[in-house]
Amino acid sequence: xxxIVKICGLSTRETLDAxxxxxxxxxxxxxxxxxxxxxxxxxxxxxxxxxxxxxxxxALTVDADDAVLANIVxxxxxxxxxxxxxxxxxxxxxxxxxxxxxxMKAIPVETPADLAALPGYAAVADRILFDARAxxxxxxxxxxxxxxxxxxxxxxxxxxxxxVSGGLHAGNVAEAVRVTRAGGVDVSSGVESAPGxxxxxxxxxxxxxxxATEELMVR
Length: 219
Description:
- It is built from 7 helices and 10 strands.
- The protein has helices at residues 13-22, 41-51, 66-76, 89-99, 118-122, 173-180, 200-211; strands at residues 4-7, 26-31, 56-61, 80-83, 103-109, 127-132, 162-165, 184-187, 192-194, 197-198.
- Strand 2, helix 2 and strand 3 form a beta-alpha-beta unit.
- Helix 1 (13-22) packs parallel to helix 7 and helix 2 crosses helix 3 (66-76).
């Protein structure tokens, strides 16, 4: 089984090209103004055209309303909606019905108790993304470079495809996959030279390191 590699928070043609050429399976675009990776719809349209049919396009939103989602869907034509806020199970179901797109729900993790909501989300979502829980004072729920205790997911019996994120980089992605047995990895700040500034060589290095872990996927 191949590991799904997602590079999130892309905002320039150069770094998008680096991700695509290095073999990223998913490329993520952020639509959340507090984030340094937030994209305008105009830039998203241009980058989406470059990525079309070369990788799955993922639109990341945080508690977005229907009007915002409709604009993003029209402009980017994403393959997957990543819901990274406090969306309820009912809201996930509503979004899927209204927009006819698969959804990936991000679940913040710090302790095993954080998995209590998992069954409800897993019944509706098409994928789950486990991310580090943001500090209470944080202005955004992800992309903070924080790592959670991967052992919380050890032995997780989840029929749904799931990914891990949070503080991943080329040096620790193999350990993350080894511990969690995740089917995918998602990186943002771990391939940046500064907040919101992607580095093409770091992107290539991360994808190389992620691909080298694929033998760990054999059970």
